[in-house]
Amino acid sequence: MTEVKLAVLGGSGAGKSALAVRFLTRRFIGEYASNAECIYTKHLCLDGRQIHLEIYDPCSQPQRGKLSLTGELHWADGFIIVYDISDRASFAFAKALLYRIRESHIGACKKMVESSVFLVGNKQDLCHMREVGWDEGQKLAMDNKCQFCELSAAEHCQEVVSMFTKVLRNITSNFKVKEKRRPSGSKSMAKLINNVFGKRRKSV
């Protein structure tokens, strides 16, 4: 069975938890505790391959100050960066997250960055309150060599499933590249990741 670890990151209120739960359960839940973090786990079959998926859903990250993603960068095989199209501050935070991810991989695993990071403009149902244009999201994604889409976790179940499926396909198709990135036998690293991400696990 293939293990895939996916981190869903973004500013407070961007809809990280809503996206993850929509994909895992096909249900939409509008309100989440912003001070809780957990790892959702699920077994699924993708293109005939059995996958044990872990999705890290952090508590809301501060949108000011220096970003520290050390644990996430070592743990995750892929990233979904979420912003709210009706909140320009969340878009600026997504930009900072993408920069931090790109900065950490410059020169080492460029192909990994291209294939396993997905920028998502959420809350398309609030288009009448839009503060961030579609073209701005597309340009940010192109500048950071990642994929991009706009959707609504509240209204677009199939689009959410399709987006997560694309991310999983990209990750699994590039595992041969990633094996060079992360030594599997490091006990100290395993301990670090357990300390950072051993908070709450939910099997769905």
Note down, in words, how this protein is organized:
With 204 residues, the chain is of the alpha/beta class. Helix content is 41%, strand content 23%. It contains 8 helices and 7 strands, in the order βαββαβααβαβαααβ. The protein has helices spanning 16-25, 70-75, 88-105, 110-116, 134-143, 157-173, 175-178, 187-197; strands at residues 2-10, 38-46, 49-57, 78-84, 117-122, 147-150, 201-203. The protein has a 7-stranded mixed beta sheet with strand order 6-5-4-1-3-2-7, with helices on both faces. Strand 5, helix 5 (134-143) and strand 6 form a beta-alpha-beta unit. Helix 1 (16-25) crosses helix 6 (157-173). The longest helix is centred in the middle third of the chain and has 18 residues, at 88-105. The chain is globular. Residues 110-115 and 183-193 have low confidence and may be disordered.
Task: Summarize this entry quickly.
About 40% of the residues lie in helices and about 25% in strands.
N-to-C order of helices and strands = EHEEHEHHEHEHHHE
Mean pLDDT: 81
Q: Count every beta strand, where a strand is a DSSP E run of 2 or more residues.
A: 7
Helical content band:
40-55%
Pick out its properties.
204 residues; alpha/beta
Could you outline the blueprint of secondary structure elements for this entry?
Layout: E1 2-10, H1 16-25, E2 38-46, E3 49-57, H2 70-75, E4 78-84, H3 88-105, H4 110-116, E5 117-122, H5 134-143, E6 147-150, H6 157-173, H7 175-178, H8 187-197, E7 201-203
Parallel strand pairs: 1-3, 1-4, 2-7, 4-5, 5-6
Antiparallel strand pairs: 2-3
Helix pairs in contact: 1-6
